[in-house]
Amino acid sequence: MDAIKLSDLQANGRHADLEKSTVISDIDDEPTKLHGASGPLRRRLFFNILVTATLTFTVYYHYQTLIDKLHPLVAPALLGSVSAAFAQTLNQYLRKKIHYNRIFKFMVWGSINGTLTVLWIDLLLTRLDSAVYRIVVDQTVGAPAFQATFSVLNSLWESGELVSTTARSSYLRSLRYSYCYWPIFSVCSFLLVPPQMMFPANCLANLLWNLILSRLT
Questions:
Q1: Is the pTM of this model over 0.85?
Q2: DSSP string covering the chain
């Protein structure tokens, strides 16, 4: 009897070991599956970056031509749109997630922002002679207004409400961050950058800012 019990225990032990090894092998298979699935995702993310980067640099290179042959507001709207999309695809690559809805949202915002920014810069240059006044008005009036425009667009896009509770908190948080970033660019822009290059330079600055915005919203 003792021998039989001992053999049963040994058999049970071997069976338990077999079960353990089966569980371990299942766990080991999971990362392989996840890794295999992430390959196509990375390629799609990289492809999106490649497309938006190509569009951004193409529009940037032909910026003056678009102004001369089409309309003064077409070029900034296009450049604002594609550069915002470029920033969003970079952000999605870092997060390893694709959200085409967010890309389209930032493209719409980029075109609106591009058009309004050019009109705003022209207004400051024609109405104010002092660079100091331009910087002060840009940061006390322009920065809150542009940030509010984005918050309203984001609220309408995401929830269908003109100003949601989330939009209010996001606006205040984004505005605080903007005052850590845009005043420096505003000083450099109005003091160092030629007027015809202010908006292209603004788009380059917006590239980084859109990365920040996409993290905050």
A1: no
A2: -HHHHHHHHHHHHHHHHHHHHHHHHHHHHHHHHHHHHHHHHHHHHHHHHHHHHHHHHHHHHTHHHHHHHT-TTHHHHHHHHHHHHHHHHHHHHHHT---HHHHHHHHHHHHHHHHHHHHHHHHHHHH---HHHHHHHIIIIIHHHHHHHHHHHHHHHHHS-SS-HHHHHHHHHHHHHHTTTHHHHHHHHHHHS-GGGHHHHHHHHHHHHHHHHHHH-
